[in-house]
Amino acid sequence: MLSIQNLHAQIEDDQKMILKGLNLEINPGEVHAIMGPNGAGKSTLGNVLAGKDGYEVTEGSVFFKGEDLLSLEVEERAHAGLFLAFQYPVEIPGVQMLNFLRTCTNETRIARGLPELNGMEFLKLARAKAAELKINPDMLKRSVNSGFSGGEKKRAEILQMALLEPQFAILDETDSGLDIDALRIVSEGVNALRDAKRSFLVITHYQRLLDHIKPDHVHVLADGQIVRSGGPELALELEERGYVHYEKAA
Amino acid sequence: MTSVLANLRQDADTRFASLGWPNRRVEAYKYTDLSALKQADFGAVVANKAHDLNALNGIEGLTLTTASQADAEVQAKVGSLLPLSDAVAAYSTAHMDEVTVLHVAANTKIEQPLILDHHRSGKNASFPRYLVILERGAEADLVERYAGDSEGLTSPVVEVFVAAGAHLKHYRALSEGSATTHLGWTATELDRDASYRHVALNHGAALARHNIRVTLAGSGAHVDLLGLHLLQGKQSCDSHTFIKHAAPHTTSNEVYKSVVADAANSIFQGKIYVAKDSQKIEGNQMSRGLLLGPRARVNNKPELEIYADDVICSHGSTVGALDESALFYLRARGIPAAKAKQLMVEAFIKEVLEDLDGVSELETHWKPLIDAYLSSVFSSAPDA
Ligand SMILES: Nc1ncnc2c1ncn2[C@@H]1O[C@H](COP(=O)(O)OP(=O)(O)O)[C@@H](O)[C@H]1O
Ligand SMILES: [Mg+2]
Fold it and tell me: B350 and chain A: CB distance < 8 Å anywhere?
C-alpha cells in the first residue's frame, strides 16, 4: 500500500532537514501508529505525504499503491485514496461546510469514475454520517471549521474521511483536544472504516487513543527517523517511560 | 434645453477648461492619472438615454420626464449634488444633453425595479444623465447597467434625492468591454430617516472611475455602500467614495472588496466625513483586496475626517493573496486547485453580497457576470 524509503525532507525556507532517512512499509488493512516527542517530524511526514508546499524532498522515495506518490499533485493524491486528517484543521470563513463537503465528495467521485451525487442524495448521506459521529447538523451550515471547538474540528475531519472513503488515512493527533466521550466517538468512526483493504497511519502522543484504535505496529519517530518499531506493547512502554530517552537521542 | 440647464452646462465647461484632466498631483486622482485623456479621441457624442426607458412608462407612482419639461424646483436640483470642482463631474456636465427624471410619488412603493440599461458600442462618447427623486415615504429599487464593447467614453451622472422616510436600493453594474473608458458619478442626498443602499459591481472597462458622494442630511438617515471590483487583464478601476454625515444620529456602513487578477489595478478611496455638530454618528468602513497574481495591484485608502466628538467610526483595510493553508486544505480533500481558488474567491466576495439573496437583479444579471469572471480568471491562469 505505502512504501517509504530513505525519505529526507527539509523546510524550503531555511533548508532545515526534518526527515532524515525515514523508512516505513504499510500493507493493506494494517494500522500503524507513530509516536514520538514534539518536533520529531511527525506532522512533517503527514504534510510531505499529502503534498504540502514548503517542503523539499532531497532524497528517498514514496510509493503509494505502486505509484510514485511524490510526483502527484495534492488533489491527485487525494483522488488516489490518500487522506490526511489535519492536526490543525484550517478555518475557511465564507465557505460553507456542506458546500465544501459536497464539492470534495463529488470531485473525488468524478476522479474515481463514479457518478456525482445530487444535492438531495448528498444531503442525506452527509446527515447520516454526521449523525454517526454525533455531529450537530447545524454545523453543516457553518463555514468550514470556523469557530468550531477543538473537538468539533476533529470530528469534522473524521466526517470528511468517512465521505471520501480513502484507502490510506493519516490521522495526525486526531485525539488531541478530545474528551473521553469524543475520543470514543471518533475512534468508533475510524474503526467503522477499518477493513482488509484500508490502512491507517495514526500519529499520536498518547497511548490512550490506541486503546480504542488497536494498531498492528507501533513506531517511534525521533529526530526525523523511525528509531524503534514493535507491536502494541511498545506504546504501553512509551506511556510508562515517556520520550525522554528519545529526545536525548535526538 | 432650458436656460437653467444651458447655464449649468456653460459653467461646467468653464470649470473643466481651467481644471483639465487631473494628474497624480491632484489628491483625489493620486492612483488614477487621467492626464493622458487629453490626447484621447472618444469620437462623436451620441445620445445618452438608456435602452428601454419606455418600459418605465405607466408604472404607477412613477413620473418619467425630462428636466426641461419639469418644474423649476426639479430643474434646480440638477447638478446641485455634484461638485464641479471634480474634473469628471465638470466634464460630464459640460457635455450633458437632456436629463431624464424619475420621480417617485410620496408614500408609494414601486415593486418592479427601475432599470436604466446601457448597452454601448462603437467609438463615441455618451453622457447619460439622470435625476432620481423619491418623495417622502416612497420606496423603490433602481438598477443601472453599463455593458457593451464601446471603444469610447461612458460618463454617466446620477443624482438621487431620497426624501424623509423614503428608501432606495440602487444596484449599479459596470461590465463594459476592455476598450471602454468609464467615468461615472453617483451623488445622493438623504433626508430624515431615509435609507439608501448602493451596491456596485465593477467588472468591466479598461479604465474606470466611479465617484460616489452621499450626504446624510437628515437625522436618522442611513446609507450602505457595498462594492465589488472584479478585475483582470490590464484593467484599472477606482472607486472614490465620500460619505458626509451632515446631521446627527446618522449611520453609514461601507464594504468594498476587490479581486484582482493578472496586471489589473484596483483603487478604493473612501472618506467618512463627520460635520461639527453631527453627534451620535456611527460610521463603519471596510475595504479588502485579494491579489490573484504577482502583478496585480490594490491601493486602498480609507480616510476619516471628524469634527464632532460623540462619534463611533471605524475603518479597516487589508490586502493579501489567497490563504495558502486553506488552499492546501481544500486540495488535500480532492478539490482541484482552480476550483479551490474559486471557492475561496466566492467566499471572499460573499460578504458584499450576503444580504442580497433573492434580489432578482443580482440573480439574473450579476451572477452570470461574476461566474464569467471567475471562470475566465481560473481557467486561463491556473497557477496565478
Ligand atoms: N513549515 C515549517 N516551517 C518551519 N519549520 C517547520 C515547518 N514545519 C515544521 N517545522 C519544524 O520542523 C520540526 C518538526 O515539526 P513537526 O513535523 O510539526 O513535528 P511533530 O509533529 O513531530 O511535533 C519542528 O522543529 C518544526 O518547528
Ligand atoms: Mg505534529
Answer: yes
Domain boundary among B321, B347, B375: B321
Closest chain A residue by Cα to residue B353: A94
Last residue within a domain, chosen from B279, B302, B321: B321
User: What residues pair up with B142 in beta bridges, in sequence order?
Assistant: B114, B170
Which residue from B minimizes the CA distance to A146? B326
Where residue B329 falls among pLDDT bands split at 50, 70, 90?
A: very high
Distance from CA of A105 to the nearest CA of B (A): 8
Q: Is a pLDDT exceeding 70 seen at residue B159?
A: yes
Q: Which residues surround ligand 2, an ion (CB under 5 A)?
A: A 42-43, 87
Q: Is the pLDDT of residue B354 over 80?
A: no
A108 touches chain B (CB under 8 A): yes
Q: What is the number of domains present in chain A?
A: 1
Our CA-based measurement puts residue B342 at a distance from the nearest CA of chain A, in whole angstroms, of: 10
* Interface residue A206 vs chain B (CB under 8 A): no
B330:A50 CB<8 A = no
B334: left (phi over 0), alpha (psi -120 to 50) or beta: left
Structural domain tally of chain B? Answer: 2
The pLDDT value recorded for residue A241 is 82
Question: What pLDDT does residue A247 have?
Answer: 67
- For residues B363 and B304, membership in a common domain is answered with no
CA-to-CA distance for B19 and A235, rounded, in angstroms? 80
Which of ligand 1's atoms lies nearest the C-alpha of A37? 22
The single residue listed with the C-alpha cell 450633458 is: B96
- C-beta of residue B201 within 8 angstroms of C-beta of residue B172: yes
Q: State whether residue A95 sits within 8 Å of chain B by CB.
A: yes
Q: Which CATH number does the domain housing residue A133 bear?
A: 3.40.50.300
- Taking 70 as the pLDDT cut, the residues of chain A under it are 247-250
A209: phi then psi, degrees, rounded to nearest 5:
-60, -35
Give the residue numbers spanning the domain of B282: 3-321
pLDDT of residue B48: 67
Mean pLDDT calculated for residue range B235-239: 98
Q: Is A124 helix (H, G, I), strand (E, B) or coil?
A: helix
Residue A119: what pLDDT?
Answer: 92
Whether residues B133 and B218 fall in one domain? yes
Domain that holds residue A229: 2-246
Strand runs labelled E in A176-232: 199-203, 217-222, 225-230
Are residue B301 and residue B334 in the same domain, yes or no? no
